Amino acid sequence: MAIDSGASEQSHKVHRSRQSGASKKKKTKPHKNKEDNSDEKKQNPKAFAFSSNSKARRLHSRAVEKEQRKLHIPAIDRSYGEVPPYVVVVHGPPKVGKSLLIKSLVKHYTKHTLPEVRGPITIVSGKQRRIQFVECPNDINGMVDAAKFADLALLLIDGSYGFEMETFEFLNILQVHGFPKVMGVLTHLDKFKDVKKLKKTKQRLKHRFWTEIYDGAKLFYLSGLIHGKYPKREIHNLARFISVMKFHPLSWRTSHPYILVDRFEDVTPPERVQTNNKCDRNVTLYGYLRGCNLKKGAKVHVAGVGDYSLASVSGLSDPCPLPSDAKKKGLREKEKLFYAPMSGLGDLLYDKDAVYININDHLVQYSKVDDGNGGAARKGKDKDVGEFLVKSLQNTQYSIDEKLEKSKISLFGQNPNYSSEAQGGEKNSLEGQEQIHDRESLEQYLTDEDDDDASQFGEENDDDYLDDSRSLGQGKDAQNAMLKSEDTDRVEFHGGRLRRKAIFGNDVDHNDLKDSDEENEQDENDGDEDTESSSSSDFSDESGEDLKPDENVMGNISKWKESLLERAVSRQTTNLTQLVYGKSASTSPTLVTEERDSGEDEEDDDDEFFKPKGEGKKTSKGGHDDADFNLEDCSKFTNYSEPNNWKEKEVYESIRDRFVTGDWSKSALRNQVSDAKTEDEDDEYGDFEDLETGEKYESHLKDDSGTDAMDKEDDAVNKERRLKKVLKHAKFNAQYPFHLNYVQFVL
Ligand SMILES: Nc1nc2c(ncn2[C@@H]2O[C@H](COP(=O)(O)OP(=O)(O)OP(=O)(O)O)[C@@H](O)[C@H]2O)c(=O)[nH]1
User: Containing domain of residue 674, as a range?
Assistant: First the structure.
């Protein structure tokens, strides 16, 4: 009974039908009731209408926003070929963790640990994407420069401290430069002990960030450090975000070419720098070209330096190429490339005309050891051509150019060994060891000398000394390698990376002079020591002999040279006069001097010989100024006629009648007379008498007596014509007196 009573008392919960989920859907799918439902819909037309006003407004604005977002101005992508790497600028106030973030990202992408962040670092982040990380400097100029090329700006903010002015300054600069994509990253969040406070701060900073940029701007949180690095998971998320981000081209940038230089090289000839420390330098800049094409000769602005024109532009092979287009997911380990020349990372260095491969020091040292010990043992089986070539290359001390240069000295033919220098590749290789020893001692001498003379030679020598000492201070094996390499190239730390600088002729000159001095001293000390082993010493000996001969010999040479100099000078003068004035000019001075020697009286007589009367008069009037007569002056044949002294009464009276105030009739008469005179002179022209022989020469007209009657008739006709002319003139004068004067004056 008890059981029955209990059962009757038990109250069951009413079954609640499913409100959502799959079973609910199943139940609300009754096929039978389909028609009924459709009827219901028809019956209730307001079922899908909005019930709330505000909700409807919100829905509408959201739909409009969505549509608006789709409406983009079509961006024309002018790029062809491989897209240049996107530039990610990491910005933030000092000590916020910029370097650490770049290192972490590079580590994530490439699995390489970056020792130092210097200059742009290019990495391959995906099959179609490369990224260049650049740390933004903390000064305003650096920010302006960075804003010019940034495709994405990572703004690092110290979460424990809050926003700093640098962030806002950079945001303002970005706005002026077209505003690229921006992402915030909060660091130093591990300093919060209170989780609630951390949460609140995050919220506060996020909203502040949104007001500054736009609502919903992405802000990342890096919670702290694990083993001195940011957590892998957070870096992975950030990297993923960067990898898939869409970069919209900025209009100004797409229409202007620009380059973010990731490497530069000073290619000024060293001798020019030596002569003038402040000379104009030639600088080669390397980097990916963005925007549009760049032409040779285009004017470029180098940020922070100034405006320049491009001497040349050339395309190089890509130092960090995109992976092959194989159909596979992700990147293989090999394809995880990166290129950071300024940070001293990456084994390949692409130059304008060469590709350099960096090989670690411990890999370079093997060959010398082989030569000494294992060389003989391996001789039998070692038939590798490449290895042999490398060894022979290592043993060569001088390039072919240098050898050829030195072989020129064998013009004197004293030592046939010099000419063999140009050929002796094998000989050099055999004597290599010996030569190295010589060089070693030479280097020691050099350094000693530099020690002493450092104060005298100034900075350049100091640098040389530093280089030498640096090269010598690397242990014996390394020292050998350095000494060998010093002849053709010098390994030095420049621009943030190790570079081998090729040194030819001119750089060696400075040292060669010292070498020669040293060798001379060495020769004096060592006496008969054979110096054939090193060609440099031979060269210096030869040059030394030429430079420092005995004093007696020098005296003879100088005497011989004196006469040579005189002869050369005399020749030079004749040559010069001939060159400048021609042959006639060179001979004329002698003639003139002869004439001058014969005396003035004779000169006067000679002048009259065989000269037309008119000219004779002219020469008597305008003679040469003997005092100022210059033999080598081309102006000696010109006649300097004396200017009339217009203050003399006779002179100015002679032209008085030519003016308005003068007597015109007189001048008319004078004209007639002058006309007649000129005709007479014409007739007489050519009459002269030879004073030496006493013969008189007259014109043929006068001599011919048969033609006299004809002449008289002509004279009569001429006179008539002249009279007619005068009458006409007089008539005309009466009519137009002024014009007549004018015409006369001109005549
Ligand atoms: N506790 C903590 N320390 C951090 C965090 N981020 C960076 N640091 C430390 O801050 C110091 C500065 O980091 P850097 O990466 O050199 O900062 P930076 O911005 O590159 O510095 P500058 O280049 O000098 O401006 C380092 O010792 C980092 O270990 C972080 O989130 N938490």
Answer: 646-746
